[in-house]
Amino acid sequence: MTTDTMVTTQLYRVYIxxxxxxxxxxxxxxxxxxxxxxxxxxxxxxxxxxxxxxAATKAMKAQGAKLGIxxxxxxxxxxxxxxxPPHRLVVTFRMNMGAEYEAxxxxxxxxxxxxxxxxxxxxxxxxxxxxxxxLAAVTAGELEAEGAGGGWAYFLSDLKSLxxxxxxxxx
Amino acid sequence: xxxxxxxxxxALADPTRRFLLDRLFQRDGRTxxxxxxxxxxxxxxxxxxxxxxxDAGLVVTRRSGREKLxxxxxxxxxxxxDRWIDKYRERQASALxxxxxxxxxxx
Lengths: 171, 107
Hints:
The complex is a heterodimer of chains A (about 170) and B (about 110).
Chain A: E1 9-16, H1 20-28, H2 30-33, E2 41-44, E3 51-55, H3 58-67, E4 74-84, E5 88-95, H4 99-103, E6 107-115, E7 121-128, H5 133-139, H6 151-165
Antiparallel strand pairs in A: 1-7, 2-3, 3-4, 4-5, 5-6, 6-7
Chain B: H1 5-12, H2 15-26, H3 32-37, H4 43-55, E1 59-64, E2 67-72, H5 75-106
Antiparallel strand pairs in B: 1-2
Helix pairs in contact in B: 1-4
């Protein structure tokens, strides 16, 4: 698809056979986040006004070098706006993949985790990407062929795989 | 409930439903009136198709003020991609690697 600036909100939903508490931990605790998705260690200060950050891993730096991007130490950063464990997390979000991305400023990302009964939880991510078409292309997985990863759909698919089978997709 | 590949394949096996997904892919967060103005079909018909897409998890609705907005959820297709298509692609790739090894051995 051509990068379509009219798309300002992206929504992703997946059902995972795990409790909301486990999913909350898998999203907010570094020992979990380094095991799936893009493998970064997420650090959250889970209170309004607290910060969250993902430091770049060696693998990310190596991948960046291949793409001609100098991946910074602080790969992702933002502020915690709402934290209601284990159901709702709202943060601001910026990916520091170069000046063009940084110039787009902070976007707003919401995680909703609902108990769907029978041990299944419904996980919804809503990413408000107004004014951030570069980041929107990355989170939509449009740059996967260029090596920038499959975006949030891949991230959630991998999270589901890890929590349901004990292994990530590429483990 | 999602996780049900059958519902996804069934939902995708219809040109009108693929058209609706394409419209949402181009621009997400549309109302029913926006979606049915693109189609030569009764509103009831469009609603039926949207219901099938929602049951498969491919379309998710959210309220925004008085409006109900329809969003494309790409995750069910990604799950099929990750669990099925990748698997066969890997096998294909390893078959090619075997063929290469065999041909080179014979040379």
